[in-house]
Amino acid sequence: MSQKRIPIRRMKTDPFMEAAIEEARKGLAEGGIPIGSVIVHDGRIIGRGHNRRIQSGSAILHGEMDALENAGRLPASVYRECTLYTTLSPCSMCTGAILLYWIPKLVIGENQTFMGEEDLLRSKGVDTEVLQNQECIDMMTSFIENNPSLWNEDIGTTP
Q: Cα–chain-centroid distance for residue 120?
């Protein structure tokens, strides 16, 4: 008697989160920390970036900061209508930028490997959604295991 196979239905990832994941992959391929981000306005990506602290010798180029930089100078009214997608829960610095520009919605790939300032963001009215995307979790888990000193440097802690 053969068993009937039931097809597994895989939920398609949001195309904007896919773009953020692609940015994270770019960062990893460049020898950096695999965190990516995109900023979406009116259904289109207006800024994308990935953590480039190592590659650029920068103190501040986290994925979210790079995406904001690459979006360029925009009126505050644009940011107030955006959604920011990031593969990892945002740190204090990136949270500050989200609040500074009044970005109303945040979609996070995962917060299992690092829990950022989500409570602060929610307390300030930012609609915050966490996907627990397995690719994001796996990418960061592997990176942290293989590069603990770089990871600790990036998040401002000591090993």
A: 17
Q: How many CB atoms lie within 10 A of CB 127?
A: 12
Residue identified by tokens 């990176």 is 143
* Helices and strands (H, E) in the chain, number of each type: 8, 5
Question: What is the Cα–Cα distance from 109 to 134, expressed in whole angstroms?
Answer: 8
Catalytic machinery residues = 64
DSSP secondary structure of 30-48: TTS---EEEEEETTEEEEE
Q: What is the largest CA-CA distance in the chain?
A: 66
Residue type, 49: G
DSSP class of residue 59 equals: S
pLDDT tens string 33-84: 999 999 999 999 999 999 999 999 998 999 999 999 999 999 999 999 999 9
CA distance 46 to 78: 10
Question: What's the half-sphere exposure (Cβ side, CA atoms, 13 Å) at 63?
Answer: 31
Integer Cα distance of 82 and 53 in angstroms = 25
